[in-house]
Amino acid sequence: MVDSIMQYQSEIWHAIGETFTMVGISIIAAIALGLPVGTLLYLSGKGQLFENRVLFAVMNILVNVVRSFPFLLLVVFLIPFTRFVVGTALGTLAASVPLSIMAIAYYARLVEQSLLEVPKGVTEAASSMGASTLQLIVKFLYVEARSGLMLGLTTSTISFISYSTVMGIVGGGGIGDFAIRYGYQRFETEIMIFTIIIMLILVQTIQYTGSFMARVLDKR
Amino acid sequence: MISLHQVSKTYVTSNSRFQAVDAVSLEVGAGEIHGIIGSSGAGKSTLLRMINLLERPDEGTVIVDGNDLTSMTDKHLREARRSMGMIFQSFNLVNNRTVSGNVAMPLEMAGLGKKERAERVREYLDFMGIADKAEEYPSRLSGGQQQRVAIARALVNHPKVLLCDEPTSSLDPQTTVGILDVLKHINRTFGVTVVIVTHEMNVVTNMCTTVSMMENGGLINTFKAEQGNTISSEDISRITVGLSRDKVRDTHG
């Protein structure tokens, strides 16, 4: 086993690098756009501070549509959009586009759920102090929901890794693509097992770190 | 100090209408400790929340310290709210911030500098007797201590009005007495006008100088104790059964 792994060492490192690139970009998209979308979903929801049926319905449907797409089809469906954004539909960077779209929708829903856990009284206290909307969000909601937001990001990251494994279809590469091409299609079972072990360790580490940080952040 | 004029609020759901507050007018003088009593569902909490417009009345006007809150822009309303403190039955502290972090929040909203914030926070934690808890998180404190933190938070920005929504209902009798003493002390020391919603009659007899009784969304009676006195239990039984009309100012309708 060691021999064949040594033989592909540079390919493995390269594949891990691609996975990190795709997942990293998706995490950035999740935080930069998924967090605001999730917050807007929460604020415009029924009985909330900025209840707005139309806005809520539009975003709710968008998030659901993205999440209900079989992911491979989403990748194919988004090819024109990807080409428009990064100039090409192939490669690691191009693969990050559909992954990021999924990431935004996925994390937005988890953000909404975490914010719904914040007791109503906290928003009421914020309003009674004369908090602006931004202050309400940043100083009250995100502070009270921070461990849930962290756990949501952990769950999301692990899903992004899983989604990223099919990116071979648009030449995105990554560890999953490596496992399929070298391990499965070339019948090198050892290689496949080895990459699965890498994935396992990666996912375990992320979950452990995420859970630990959520615990540290939670003072409730 | 506070003047509610013919305020109403109706909650409409798809299959029902509930008139929480029905054309209520209420005057609260500066420096009063004004109790609002009534059975649950009478509209006491809704009425209290109208004073700082946490509940916006469907009709009527709310005037606090000479300003009509109902006609204000959002920005001015936020500023007006900063001169009113509010405490709650469930304390509503931010549990992921320390005690001093919680008390500092209204000052952050008001844009005070860091150094001045720290000084003010310390001053009010001292005043409330919880200076040793400054760096603790709220979940490590008892209910009475948490309510003290909430009171410090409500007072730190020097409000003229303190709104209290069942502040002692989740506390044991002994702790309740302690909190009521603090509220009286605040009223005397800073001249803060206190409006307190409660269903506990001993809260009224312990501290209120005026009491209003609500029923089914309407204000039945307002009764003012003699100068320097608090409401007695006889006063309460009088207004609840509607006796001694000469002493009772009927503000209904």
List strands and helices in order, with pairings.
The complex is a heterodimer of chains A (220) and B (253).
Chain A lengths: L1 H6 L1 H36 L8 H16 L2 H7 L1 H8 L5 H25 L3 H9 L4 H32 L10 H10 L4 H29 L3
Helix pairs in contact in A: 2-3, 2-6, 2-8, 2-9, 3-6, 5-6, 6-8, 7-8, 8-10, 9-10
Chain B lengths: L1 E12 L2 E13 L4 E5 L6 H8 L7 E6 L2 E2 L5 H8 L2 E4 L11 H11 L4 H14 L15 H13 L5 E5 L7 H18 L2 E5 L3 H7 L2 E6 L2 E7 L8 H9 L12
Parallel strand pairs in B: 3-8, 3-9, 6-7, 7-8
Antiparallel strand pairs in B: 1-2, 1-4, 4-5, 9-10
Helix pairs in contact in B: 3-4, 3-5, 4-5, 5-6
Describe this structure in words.
The complex is a heterodimer of chains A (220) and B (253). Chain A is elongated. Chain A is mostly helical and 220 residues long. Chain A has a single domain (21-174), classed as Orthogonal Bundle (MetI-like fold). The longest helix of chain A is centred in the N-terminal third of the chain and has 36 residues, at 9-44. Chain A has helices at 2-7, 9-44, 53-68, 71-77, 79-86, 92-116, 120-128, 133-164, 175-184, 189-217. In chain A, helix 2 packs antiparallel against helix 3 and helix 2 packs parallel to helix 6. With 253 residues, chain B is of the alpha/beta class. Chain B folds into 2 domains: 28-54 and 72-83 and 159-253, Rossmann fold (3-Layer(aba) Sandwich), CATH 3.40.50; 94-157, no CATH class. Chain B has 8 helices and 10 strands. Chain B has helices at residues 44-51, 74-81, 99-109, 114-127, 143-155, 173-190, 201-207, 233-241; strands at 2-13, 16-28, 33-37, 59-64, 67-68, 84-87, 161-165, 193-197, 210-215, 218-224. In chain B, the strands form 2 sheets. Chain B has a 6-stranded mixed sheet, with helices on both faces. Chain B has a 4-stranded antiparallel sheet with strand order 2-1-4-5, covered by helices on one side. In chain B, helix 3 (99-109) crosses helix 4 and helix 4 packs across helix 5 (143-155). The longest helix of chain B has 18 residues, at 173-190. The radius of gyration of chain B is 18 Å and the shape is globular. The model of chain B is unreliable at 243-253 (pLDDT under 50). At the A-B interface, helix 7 and helix 8 of A face helix 2, strand 6 and helix 3 of B. Chain A: Keywords: Cell membrane, Membrane, Transmembrane, Transmembrane helix, Transport. Chain A: This is D-methionine transport system permease protein. Chain A: It is found in: Cell membrane.
